[in-house]
Amino acid sequence: MQTNTTPDTPEDYCGTTYAAKLLGLSVGTIQTLVEKNELQAWKTQGGHRRISMPSIREYQRKHNMLTTQSEPRDNRLRVLLVEDDAVTREMLRGYCNRSSMPVDCMAMSSGLEALIDISSIKPDVLITDLDMPGVDGFELLRTLRQNSQFSRMTTLVLSALTPKEIEARGGLPEGTIFMAKPINMDWFNGFFTAFLAGRYIELHAQDGITQT
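^ thats the sequence. predicted structure below, dont judge the formating
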């Protein structure tokens, strides 16, 4: 059953892409499930479909599916990649998901799609392009900066824009890591290696404090 009632919080809904990942299905199959009323959904004024999280959990229970929430939170690094160029998006997503490092990458093609799902994904690292149609990387970063929920999230910007062009459009939030396109995959690999090493040290330091 579809409803026009908007949930109170972002945790109550997700976008089609994230729903597909949660259920291990294609986006097309999710759309079919919505049309068959097996998942509850509605459309925003902009025409973007949002899926009810309770209906997803009910579908998982009904079909004896394991939920992603059952996975240990510290087991894998959660990465959200926002890139409108399909070739670059698939290259980076493929690299992350084929890597021997514990990295789980969710890829999206627009800033708006990311804003819909980021509260559900809760990424450790956000990787985003800047120059995108609609909600671009600048607006995405400004919006997230206003939410304390993402204050500890690491942000990596990939862009062909020059530093002067970026500054002219308002600059980047403090602490944002910048990498110029074309992407240097050795640098990209080093970024994750260093990040995971730092995370490992931090977790073990916390364990030491707990045991003291």
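The first strand starts at residue 13 and ends at 15.
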